């Protein structure tokens, strides 16, 4: 099992994220950080404090997110690979549970779990998010269809997913033409080749940072989800009837409204915390 970090401006959370990987009940065979032009002290911290079993690769010049994610994925040579962003965290049994799921299902191309949503300070905003009603081994096209009908990415962010490396490699590079659906775009392509193992347990923590709120409170996520759905339909990764397509559109709007309400409540709590600090 390999864990790769495509890092850009990873402070102050990167040390905690690396620590969460080192604390796994099943140790990663290799941990690689791809440092990509950070200006916040990330490179300096890694040069001095990176643990001995963490390999650091420094990009010679700043590149785009998708290219850095692709570099990170191609660094892995093990059978299984997890891509972990610098401000997210793994629960201690994440690698053990997801690796066991894939090792016991040779036809599966990825494993995914639920996750907690946390804020800048690590305070839990929501628990057991993700997967909808899906559980166990599910055909890849059925997962794609469930996402389309639900109007959201049911698998969550890369912290929640472990790929079979051979399946991921067939679909590189990552594509950030719809950046808020970069993960779902890759999942759906990989799932065209096999099934998913869906673990109904929170095995990761995804951090919502204050710097991302403006985009999250706009319509961009909904618009890009619908762009993903239309692309998946065109690529025959999912099939919907006209009625289901209308349902998908309505659900995307409903999910967008719920997401905005949740982010606004989180922003209010953060402002109160800052005022009381």
Write up this protein.
This protein has a single domain, classed as Spore Coat Polysaccharide Biosynthesis Protein SpsA, Chain A. Helix content is 43%, strand content 22%. It has helices at 14-22, 42-49, 65-75, 94-103, 140-150, 165-169, 182-191, 213-216, 220-234, 242-276; strands spanning 2-7, 30-35, 54-58, 80-83, 89-90, 108-118, 124-129, 136-138, 161-164, 195-207. Strands 1, 2, 3, 4, 5, 6, 7, 8, 9 and 10 form a 10-stranded mixed β-sheet that branches. It is globular and about 55 Å long. The mean pLDDT is 94.
What would a concise description of this structure say?
This protein is α/β, with parallel strands linked by helices. Helices cover 43% and strands 22% of the residues.
Strand content: 15-25%
**Mean pLDDT over all positions:** 94
Biggest sheet record: 10 strands, mixed
Helix-strand makeup class: alpha/beta
